[in-house]
Amino acid sequence: MTIQTNLNKIFRLGLVALTATSLSFATIIPAKVAFAEPNKGYSVSPDVINEGMNGTWNLQWKVNGWLHRGRLKMDGNFGTMIVNVTGPNGRKVYAQQQMNMVPDRNGYILQGSRPTYPGSYAINRNYQPDSFYVESGHRGSWKMRNCSDYHGCIPVRMTRIDR
Predict the structure, then answer these.
(1) Which residues pair with 146 in a beta bridge?
(2) What's the farthest any 2 CA atoms get from each other in the chain?
(3) Neighbours of 115 (CB within 10 A)
């Protein structure tokens, strides 16, 4: 046998093997095509956790001589807050955060996102995200505390501006 004859035999054998493999794959393909169903569960509650917080609020709290003034605008479980901070030496820091409302045992938590400079997407490394604990007070009022990175929670004064 020549080399050419051997190559022809190997080539034919390869074609037979390829055909057999293709046929075997064809037999395992299901007759009915299945599509993935969308997940009907929710990762975040679809219901508004606290409709009483909808609207615009002025927030104010003080930490180690630094006065924080925030403007919080909530719509459902999400909102935006811009914070102006004035230090005891007059230094000013401005930050904007997206806020997310999460249920808790006796109230809920408003968790801030990574702060940016207001009106931009640039991260503000001079400000840490805020975390507020909110619970219902007397006669429909709300009690809020800032529990970010301080030793304990700091009381926050809340004033509604509009709904």
Answers:
(1) 132, 154
(2) 102
(3) 23
Owner of token pair 């001079």: 126
Place of tokens 């030793």: 151
Q: How far apart are the first and last CA of the chain?
A: 94
Residue type, 10: I
> What's the gap between Cα 34 and its chain centre?
32
Residue 108 CB neighbours (<10 A): 19
Which 3-state string (H, E, C) describes 89-137?
Answer: CCCEEEEEEEEEEEECCCCEEEEECCCECCCCCCECCCCCCCEEEEEEC
Residue carrying the six token digits 């074609």: 15
d(Cα 67, Cα 61) in Å, to the nearest integer?
6
The owner of tokens 């969308």 is: 38
At 91 the pLDDT is 94
Under-70 pLDDT residues of the chain: 1-9, 11, 13-46, 140, 150
Distance CA 62, CA 107 (A): 22
Q: Which residues contact 159 (CB under 8 A, 6 or more apart)?
A: 57, 58, 59, 60
